[in-house]
Amino acid sequence: MASLSDAKDLLAKLVGFDTTSAKSNLDLITFVQDYLHRNGIASTLVPSADDRKASLYATIGDGEGGIGLSGHSDCVPVEGQTWTSDPFTLTERDGKLYGRGTCDMKGFIACVLASVPLFKARKLKEPIHIIISYDEEVGCAGVRPLLALLGENLPRPRVIIVGEPTSMQVIDGHKRIDVYLTTVTGKEAHSSLPAIGVNAISVAAKLVDEIDRVAAEIATTENDPHFEPPYSTVSVGMIEGGTAPNIVPKTCEIRWQIRGLPSADADAVPGKLAAFAEKSLLPQMRKVAPEASVEIESQTSVPAFSAAPQSDAVALAMALTGANRTSGVSYATEAGLFEKAGCPAVVCGPGDIAQAHAADEFVSIAQLEACLKFLGDLTEHLRA
Ligand SMILES: [Zn+2]
């Protein structure tokens, strides 16, 4: 297996690039491209529409199919978090490596890059593909243009390993994410005459209440013990409305989301909310303001992931980790998109999801070592 010190050095470099999703990831991608080039490997970049970001695809070895090792380069913001040390300087304390993205998921990328000389040194039965995306943290947007090229300009891997932090457990399913914006349009009025207005915030409050009611109903009707919690969850995340205390507000926006089980009907919840608005809210609102409305708009959708029963990807990850069981998780990854694009996927990577997105994010050295061993064993597994 590759050396831990190489993986640590690479992780220090990767953490040094502030690749918060809102920013460019091109410095990181250029670094990776140069590193691969020094190892004699060419890479293809798939730029974003505005050219500020890019995904990277590189292949080691020859032949059809192959194993794709997939990670996202972006990370979540550090704003509002209290960190013990600089989030963009890798810092070691007590067997843990601290820094933004160490766990989610630059630790995995560092292990993959550190293993490149090893991949190169062996004659492989099938190739290894390195796939690095952007904008995963904002609806898995960045990997989608790359997926469209698989089987066309880019080789389609036989199996994809998504190295999100699972503590090296084998994950064969995850929930979907659907983000909605609900906009209430009422009618403005002087607050001394509320009866001639339609208060958009008051209507929104009733919608929030209905979202919570539907969420509670789902919690008692769905039960899939493969996931924790074992049902789809629905929650309101943001609300914004009104202009002044003495004005009946005309508009109010609610942003909410569903984390749905793979088996759940994704359209059921917005359908119920629309029916509630149509029956219980709009008739009253339109008596005062015929133009009043409640719009429910889908903003982002990340598909659920559910590996096929005889998935090659799951079998490979189980063989390499020695695991005898698989689990599902409630956070979403790019695995569902890969699976939809015809690449059997599995999620397995170093670090604990509990540290992802948190202040003082870290990956333990033991987890990096486990990942390096996994990649070393993969190399042996693929040896011609
Ligand atoms: Zn992630």
Describe this structure in words.
There is one protein chain. The model has no long low-confidence stretch (mean pLDDT 97). This protein has 384 residues and is of the alpha+beta class. The chain is built from 10 helices and 18 strands. The structure holds zinc ion. Residues 72, 104-105, 136, 164 line the site of zinc ion (ZN).
Mean pLDDT: 97
Structural class: alpha+beta
What is the tally of helical segments? 10
Globally, the shape reads: elongated
Unreliable runs:
none
Percent strand equals 15-25%
Topology, number of strands:
18
Helix content: 25-40%
- Element-by-element helix/strand order: HHEEEEEHHEHEEEEHEEEHEEHEHEEH
Q: Report on the biggest sheet.
A: 6 strands, mixed
Gap between N and C termini: 17 Å
What topology does this entry show?
Elements: H1 4-16, H2 26-38, E1 43-47, E2 54-60, E3 67-72, E4 91-93, E5 96-98, H3 102-114, H4 116-121, E6 128-133, H5 143-147, E7 159-162, E8 171-174, E9 176-185, E10 189-190, H6 200-221, E11 233-241, E12 247-248, E13 251-260, H7 268-288, E14 293-302, E15 305-306, H8 312-321, E16 327-329, H9 335-340, E17 345-347, E18 362-364, H10 365-382
Parallel strand pairs: 3-6, 3-7, 7-17, 8-16
Antiparallel strand pairs: 1-2, 2-6, 4-5, 5-18, 8-15, 9-13, 9-14, 10-12, 11-13
Helix pairs in contact: 1-3, 3-10, 6-7
The chain binds zinc ion.
